[in-house]
Amino acid sequence: MTFALPAAEAQALLDATLRGELPDDRGRFGPFGGRYVPETLVPAFERLEQGVREHLHDAGFQAEFQRELREWVGRPTALTHAPRLSEHWGTEVWLKREDLAHTGAHKINNAIGQALLAKRLGARRVIAETGAGQHGVASAAACARVGLPCAVYMGAVDIERQAPNVDRMKRLGADVIAVETGDKTLRAAIDEALREWVTDPAGIYYLLGSAVGAHPYPYLVRELQSVIGEEARQQMIDQAGGLPDAVFACVGGGSNAIGLFYPLLGDDIELIGVEAGGTGDGLGQNAATLATGTPGVLQGAYTMILQDADGQVQETHSISAGLDYSGVGPEHALLQATGRVTYVSANDADSLAALEELCATEGVLTALETAHAYAYAREWSSRNPGKRILIGNSGRGDKDMPTLTRYPVRSGSHGGA
Ligand SMILES: *Cc1c(COP(=O)(O)O)cnc(C)c1O
Fold it and tell me: 81: helix, coil or strand?
């Protein structure tokens, strides 16, 4: 059951996307997106929208952003051919290595971009939310870099589960604020950060971590992350001799996926987003928002969400903390509804197996989030031999060692073919 638009409307919205006209001036991606926030938050969002319009595409800001990406983040990240994995799968596999970016994932592209924007807007401090802690670490590092104090809201449950990242944030100079309200995880952390933002929208900059929420965040984060797809497109031409037939990315909130897909939307390439299939298809057993959810409003945007028949938002489950969210960026909801991008899911067990295979064949320990893209790409390859594919390797797996240690390496997976 997938939400689909009538063909003519879908085509018109895709054309508008390719012309760069979405989101529209109300922040909408066709029927999705927008800004569904309480009256008290409107001034803060309007101020931010104005700031984005003024600075994001300004030549001076872009020069500064590009310099930080190059000299501090370490871009461009490599495009890596994966010959041994290719042999296993029967397809020609290429990896876009966001794991090689500073702090170990794509999240830093967005964090440094927004930290620079905060500076331009004259903010005195930055607040951010985090679930697993990865965005908190990226935000803390970016704020240290630009010289702004940073406070990271984090659910009490997550603080318990992610102790190493809490320590990392503190060492990078951030205050970590424990959130004891609501579900005490990511959703509650976002709500608390918004609550503080309202108290001083001119002095505080809210650095949101994915392409989700009310306008202008989905647009802002897409623009900052599109560097992934822009680099990958050129690298495929230069190194592989042409564009891929299919591209895979994992989808939590959807920031690494939109960053990789957006610059490729106009090409004749199959684009596939892979969500967390968890342990099963039932509500609460996965985080497959697009693959199994329904339209509704969550945290300021009309998008696809996991909710029950009464509209109660559901808890999610995934082996990877970074995919464990009951909503998704509204632009992905549009791309699904137009049929341009296909969204599927991979379960915990297959993702673990794919992670192991990548380690053994290419010497790359990928993040558990990213492993979902590999799990589905592997299955897709078995049905599409001889194709050339690109996988968005969104982050490194070192942070996942405490989880991985619970699953012993299967004997014989390393060594020769
Ligand atoms: C946070 C994270 C994700 C999920 O976030 P998106 O916004 O969907 O990209 C995926 N991969 C890694 C490595 C992450 O840290």
Answer: strand
